[in-house]
Amino acid sequence: MMREAIARRAYEIYQGRGAAEGHDAEDWLKAEQELVEPLSCGCLKMENGLKVSVCLSGIKAKKITVGVEPERLIFIGGNAAEGEEKQATAIRTLTLTEAVDPASARIRQVGTTLEIALRHAPAGIKEELCAERAA
């Protein structure tokens, strides 16, 4: 998803320069800088899961969507107003130190901090993830 967004923007930059060849890496880096914003966060291991804190003060997006997978969090920011075409402006992933149950995610915003509480994944999910990695 992120790679496609960067590639699309890099191509737009290339076209904006009159399709001049030889600036592929430069166009890619410029597209990355425009689309990907830094993410400041911390992860605390708890007895029953993880607690992740994300600082939103440096993020320019008006709306943040958080996707939760067993081994990672996905942050997608957008600036489109209600009814406008949506365009992702910031996409970051955070690889988790332990497998979690996505259905257990509890997210709340406290000031400029996003707090995400996650419970450990059930044993069956952990075993499936280990088997997928081994394959």
Based on CA atoms alone, the radius of gyration comes out at 18 Å
Count of discrete domains: 2
Strand content bin: 25-35%
**CATH fold node name of the largest domain:** Immunoglobulin-like
Distance between the termini: 24 Å
Protein architecture, described:
- The protein is built from three helices and seven strands.
- The protein is α+β, with helices and mostly antiparallel strands.
- The protein has two domains: 1-36, no CATH class; 38-134, Immunoglobulin-like (Sandwich), CATH 2.60.40.790.
- A four-stranded antiparallel sheet has the order 1-2-7-6, with no helix packed on it. Strands 3-4-5 form a three-stranded antiparallel sheet, with no helix packed on it.
- β6 (106-110) and β7 form a beta hairpin.
- α1 (2-16) packs across α2 (24-35).
- The radius of gyration is 18 Å and the shape is elongated.
- The protein starts with a helix and ends with a helix.
Features:
3 helices; alpha+beta; 7 strands; 2 domains; 135 residues; Immunoglobulin-like; three-stranded antiparallel beta sheet; four-stranded antiparallel beta sheet
Question: Could you write a compact summary of the structure shown?
Answer:
By secondary structure, the protein is an alpha+beta fold. The chain has helices at residues 2-16, 24-35, 123-134; strands at 40-45, 49-55, 63-69, 72-78, 88-95, 106-110, 113-119.
What is the fold's blueprint, element by element?
Layout: H1 2-16, H2 24-35, E1 40-45, E2 49-55, E3 63-69, E4 72-78, E5 88-95, E6 106-110, E7 113-119, H3 123-134
Antiparallel strand pairs: 1-2, 2-7, 3-4, 4-5, 6-7
